[in-house]
Every structure is written in structure tokens, then in C-alpha cells.
Specification:
435 residues; alpha/beta; two-stranded antiparallel sheet; 12 strands; 14% strand; disordered N terminus
Length: 435
């Protein structure tokens, strides 16, 4: 959740102001959408505007380039920094100046869908012959009142990345990734023992999105939860969560994790792994596309395990919908439908080492050629996407209650379990409060 190579977008200090704008939009337009029931799609040379946040820019532009080269319509992309994207969208919504195509972090999709930022795509989506194969977590997040307001754009999910070169140097089997947190700890300690600037494990300690993206799956895989089913209350005061954050705290205290992890806020949280200095690090699957392997870095991937086994993943990424005030809905839908087609999903998305948003295409030619993509595709159907209308201001805002919670749990003094219980109330209050 999430800096590149993928940090979840943050509301920052503008969260409250943006929330107010979105409430206004909801009152003005509602979630029905002017195009409800319309299924039209045209490729007539229309110029279509699209917005996305910086972590998704490369992915979106790759699809756009392929579409523009083969269609009369032309999509023009505008990219905004991740930490100001929500404010920009909120302001544009209030002024009814949203783009034709609007991409959004999947964790914000419930809020966007409920407040009329997207047109109703139900009729268009249901006519797709493969609609039942679209990424379930993304579709659920972008559905409100039984209506579909967006479709999956890209999938990013968390997984364990490990450097096979360092595994070999430490006497570990490079084809046997750790399958429990205890095994991660044991392997990471052996790698850290190599000395120098080599360390066994890394995380973004001051990056709230990075932390939830990589540590929540450990809780899920251990049988715990982080939110109730309605997304209105936190369940971070569980014994599983206490053990996970105690585990992270111990790795840091013992020097298995570099001291720099404490202040890593996201922008460079994968850099040390890319430089071949870190043995094991959970991160986003989209990181693989940009990794340059060589003598110091050979990348293996595996599911994120729990305390004693199991596995899970935080399924993130973005959804794509038609802006609530678009006057080019038919042309915008032509692009959206094409991005979901066999051609786009296999020859563009999968070819560039990304995860297809359609489960019926998971076993594609490119996935067969790179077993790591097979791991990602399996995790896409096994992982979770927490849904809460107030997710952003609670978990991704650096001034929100989750930031203080995870920093205290990992770096604070006192028992991690007690710290989580103390903070759980504040997290719940944020989740259940009005937006």
C-alpha cells in the first residue's frame, strides 16, 4: 500500500479538506451516474483525458501507448504525486472537472463509488463475456449498492522477495524460500552474519502504507484479522498482531534489519534490496518489473507466511472508472474495455511481468515462462483487500492513528500487545467516524 516501487497513496494533511469536498459532491450528484444502463463504446478519434497517481504511471502509460497506436481515440495521461492525488481529485470533483478516466488506489474505491466520482458502469461491465473473471477484490471494492462503478486497472500484491545470491553465500538453499516467520528470522540472521553492509531483512518503518502492505498478511496467515467485516472497527489488539510486531521489533533490535529502516518513509524502501544488500524483504509484486538482476541480485519470490505457516497477501493496486462529469463516456469505455481484453492483458500486462486482472488468463504464456508470475497470480486469488470508506485517513495518512500505532509497536518501549490495545481504540474511532 501500496512509494515506488509501490507505496499506498497518502491523504496527508489535506485529508479533512478533501473529505469535506467529497461530501459536497455526494450531495450534488449522488452515485447513480448519468450513463447508467448505457453500453455504448466508440472509437471515433476522441481525445480522452485520464488521471493517475505516480506509482501507477508507468503501468498506465504502457497500456495507453499500446491503445493509442492501434485506435483512432487517443488517451492523454496526467500524473500527480501520490501524496497529493486525493486532494487533487477531491477539488476537481467539487468543481465538476474530473477527467474522462479516473484511476484510484483500490482502498479508496469504496469512497469514490459511494460519492459519485465514477459513472455507473453496471450495464457495460455485465455485458463483458469475462466479467466473472475480473479480480474479485477490486470488483468488490468498486461496487456500491449492487452497482459497479469501476473495474480493475492494475494489481499489486505483497509477497516475499529474496536474493538467491545471498542465500547461497549464507549456505541456504536458494530454491527453498522460508515458509514461516521463524524460518524468515533464521534465514535473515544467517545472511546478516555475512557482515559488512549486508543485512538479512528490511521494512519501511516510517511508511504506514508499506507496513500494512507487508505485515497484515502475516497476521492474516496466522489466523488473525485487522478489521471487522464492515470496515468500521479495528481488531489490531489480537494475539496474532502482538506476535507479528514483536517479531519485527526483535529483528530490528538484534541488528538483522538496518538502522535506516526506522526512518524509511517509503521513497527508497526497496533500494537496498535492489542493490543486493538485503536478503529478504516483503514488497509489491510490481517491483519485479523494474529489477535488474545480475551477479549480486537473483530474485526469488514466495508468499508471505504466518507465524507457524499458512500464507496470505495484501491485494492492492488500482481501479479505473469513468469520471462522474465525463462527456465522452462511450470513448472512455472503449479504452477501459480494451485494457481488459485478451490482447491487452496478455501481450501488454503479462508481457511486462505484471499480474493479469482476469483469473481466466492467469495461466498465460508469459506466466508459464517465469514461475514468479505464477506465484503472483495464485496470490491474487488468495489474498485480501481490506475495505473501509475511511481507510485513507485512518491508515495511509501519515498523521493518522495507524502511523503512531505501528511505530510504537515496532520501535516503542513496552509490550507490543499492550501498545496495540492502547491504539486500537483510536484506530476504530477513525474508521467509524464520518467522512
Amino acid at each position: 500500500m501500496t512509494s515506488h516501487i509501490r507505496t499506498r497513496a497518502r491523504w496527508g494533511r489535506a485529508a479533512a479538506a478533501v473529505a469535506g469536498v467529497l461530501v459536497l459532491v455526494a450531495c450534488q450528484s449522488g452515485p447513480s451516474g448519468a450513463a447508467a444502463g448505457d453500453t455504448a463504446s466508440v472509437d471515433d478519434g476522441t481525445t480522452i483525458t485520464m488521471w493517475t497517481r505516480s506509482p501507477t504511471a508507468t503501468f498506465s502509460q504502457t497500456l495507453i501507448d499500446a491503445y493509442n497506436a492501434s485506435h483512432k481515440n487517443k488517451v492523454k495521461l496526467t500524473v500527480f504525486p501520490a501524496d497529493s492525488y486525493q486532494q487533487k481529485v477531491g477539488t476537481a470533483a467539487g468543481a465538476k472537472q474530473l477527467p474522462d478516466l479516473l484511476a484510484a488506489d483500490v482502498v479508496y474505491a469504496p469512497d469514490y463509488a459511494a460519492k459519485g466520482l465514477f459513472l455507473d458502469l453496471t450495464a457495460r461491465v455485465t455485458q463483458l463475456p469475462f466479467s466473472g473473471s475480473l479480480a474479485a477484490a477490486h470488483m468488490k471494492a468498486a461496487t456500491a449498492g449492487g452497482k459497479h462503478y469501476a473495474v480493475p486497472h492494475d494489481i499489486d500484491l505483497s509477497a516475499v522477495f529474496y536474493n538467491k545470491v545471498l542465500f547461497i553465500r549464507a549456505g541456504l538453499d536458494p530454491e527453498k524460500p522460508p515458509s514461516t516467520l521463524d524460518e524468515i528470522s533464521a534465514d535473515a540472521r544467517k545472511i546478516a552474519a555475512l557482515g559488512g553492509d549486508t543485512k538479512g531483512y528490511f521494512f519501511g518503518g516510517a511508511c504506514p502504507g508499506c507496513q500494512l502492505f507487508t505485515s497484515w498478511p502475516m497476521i492474516w496467515a496466522s489466523g488473525g484479522t485487522v478489521l471487522n467485516d464492515q470496515g468500521t472497527a479495528a481488531t489490531l489488539d489480537s494475539p496474532q498482531a502482538a506476535k507479528v510486531y514483536s517479531w519485527l521489533r526483535q529483528l530490528y533490535a538484534d541488528g538483522v534489519v538496518p538502522a535506516s529502516a526506522k526512518n524509511e518513509s517509503g521513497p527508497t524502501w526497496t533500494q537496498s534490496f535492489l542493490d543486493g544488500k538485503i536478503g529478504i524483504q516483503p514488497m509489491g509484486a510490481t517491483a519485479l518489473q523494474g529489477m535488474k538482476e545480475g551477479p549480486d541480485l537473483q530474485v526469488g519470490v514466495a508468499p508471505i507466511p504466518g507465524l507457524t505457516g499458512g500464507s496470505s497477501s495484501f491485494v492492492g493496486g488500482d481501479v479505473l472508472g469513468i469520471g462522474g462529469n465525463s462527456t465522452h463516456a462511450a470513448a472512455a469505455w472503449d479504452f477501459i474495455a480494451w485494457t481488459l481484453s485478451d490482447q491487452a492483458q496478455v501481450d501488454v500486462v503479462a508481457k511486462n511481468k505484471n499480474i493479469t486482472v482476469r483469473s481466466d488468463l492467469a495461466d498465460n504464456t508469459h506466466a508459464k515462462q517465469d514461475p514468479r508470475l505464477g506465484v503472483f497470480n495464485r496470490l491474487a486469488s488468495q489474498g485480501q483487500t481490506p475495505i473501509s470508506v475511511n481507510f485513507g485517513k485512518t491508515f495511509n495518512d501519515t498523521n493518522g492513528p495507524w502511523t503512531a500505532t505501528v511505530i510504537d509497536a515496532v520501535f516503542g518501549s513496552g509490550d507490543a500487545g499492550s501498545i496495540l490495545k492502547q491504539h486500537n481504540t483510536a484506530v476504530t474511532e477513525s474508521l467509524s467516524g464520518g467522512s
